[in-house]
Design goal:
With 124 residues, this protein is an alpha/beta fold. Helix content is 30%, strand content 30%. It has a single domain, classed as 2-Layer Sandwich (Transcription Regulator spoIIAA), CATH 3.30.750. The strands form two sheets. The chain has a five-stranded mixed β-sheet with strand order 3-4-5-6-7. The protein has a two-stranded antiparallel sheet with strand order 1-2. The radius of gyration is 14 Å and the shape is globular.
Length: 124
């Protein structure tokens, strides 16, 4: 796995995407969007922090809005897979929506039973 270096924390992931989050009454939503360049771990740190907040939110599901994402980096996929297990232990669902062909392709090498839920609807 390719990474960048942070003077304070050592190696960090370089993920070329932006991460936004919103807390709705019935779910926690993360919006992933393409970014022109990786920003030395910032997106990975933000994604990890948002996923941790989602775990602690008390919501029953975390929706990942992929409508502005044309490619899901492997490092982001792996981080999301780790949190899917963590959320599952708390009886929370991780749902990708809308699941574009490119995002579905990112999970092609993952066993079907281990893949996150994919929905065609937009997160409300």
């Amino acid at each position: 796995m390719r990474g960048c270096r942070s003077a304070r924390y050592g190696p960090v992931l370089c993920i070329p995407m932006d991460v936004y989050h919103e807390i709705l009454p019935d779910r926690y939503v993360l919006l992933l969007a393409d970014s022109p360049a990786p920003s030395a771990g910032t997106a990975a740190d933000t994604l990890a922090r948002c996923l941790l907040q989602a775990c602690r939110s008390g919501k029953t599901s975390v929706w990942i809005d992929c409508s502005r994402l044309h490619h899901l980096p492997t490092a982001a996929r792996d981080l999301l897979m780790r949190y899917q297990k963590r959320l599952g232990r708390r009886s929370m669902r991780l749902v990708f929506s809308p699941a574009s062909a490119a995002v579905q392709q990112a999970f092609a090498d993952v066993a079907p039973e281990a893949r996150p839920e994919m929905a065609d609807e937009e997160p409300a």
